[in-house]
Amino acid sequence: MEKNPNARIRLFGNLYTLRRKRGLPTVAEIWLPDSGRPACEVAEELDLPLERIEGVFCNHFAHGLDHLLRPGDEIAFIPTGVPGPHRYMLGIHEAGKRNRGTNTD
Fold first, then answer.
1. What is the reported pTM?
2. Rounded-to-integer distance, Cα 24 and Cα 16, Å
3. What domains are there in the chain, each with its CATH number?
């Protein structure tokens, strides 16, 4: 039995371009279990190269790719290449450090 999508994922920058070149929608709709799924698994399901993803925005906050995404979350993958000051203001810098396993203390 096919499950109806319950999450919408927006893509920007090089991820947007990649999906568009592949003839795929730039806003993806997928099904997520109530218990959630790590963002890295969702990215792999969407065939997005992890080396081109810095983190994920979930409900307006930046997180690492180990963050659990749940139904109804507002989700957008953060592509690599976001300019300097924006990385700090949006919390992307810290999310990227968490992805690489770097201590943020």
1. 0.80
2. 9
3. 7-99 (3.10.20.30)
